[in-house]
Amino acid sequence: TLCHRPCDGGMAPPAFFRSDQSGHGVSAIASLVRRSGFTLVEVLVALAILAVALAAGFRSVAQSADSATALKARTLALWVAQNRLAAAQLERPAPAVGERSGTDAQAGTVFSWRESVSGTPNPAFRKIEINVADPSTPDYVLAHLVGYVGQSAQR
Asked: Is pLDDT larger for residue 10 or for residue 82?
């Protein structure tokens, strides 16, 4: 039983059983014992913060993967354009003025290319513009390369 004054033996009960001035000693202790965990609202707020942080992390990883894929496609398309320019430089006679198009594969990926050959103020040179795109989206140019080819002297 709870005592407000010393019980038998003259000893006071332990401090956590003693009532404070308001008379709420035991109920105050009981409320402290119940308060040792987290409330449902606190847990839900923590889960919401964790969900937002994880969503941002996953989005960052996804964007990084998309960027890597796009960079690979642009690099391969540039290699296709450089190969086309090298082929034009080796072509004898020099490529005729006009437009050509076709497809080429690089690292197992197929690309479509368009070449536009035009004259320059110096008749010994021709300007070649090469656009490379994914065949499924030909209007979205992945690589654009401009080069000049010298014509061999005619004998």
From this structure: 82
Q: 13 vs 107, which has greater pLDDT?
A: 107
- % of the chain surpassing 90 pLDDT: 46
**Which residue shows structure tokens 């059983």?**
17
Amino acid (1-letter code) at residue 8 = D
Q: Taking a C-beta distance cutoff of 8 angstroms, is the pair 111, 134 a contact?
A: yes
With beta carbons less than 8 A apart as the criterion, state whether 3 and 13 touch.
Answer: yes
128, two tokens: 């070649």
- Report yes or no on whether pTM surpasses 0.85: no
Q: Which two tokens stand for residue 64?
A: 């990084």
Sequence-ordered strand ranges (E) for the chain: 98-106, 109-119, 125-134, 137-150
Terminal-to-terminal C-alpha distance of the chain: 124
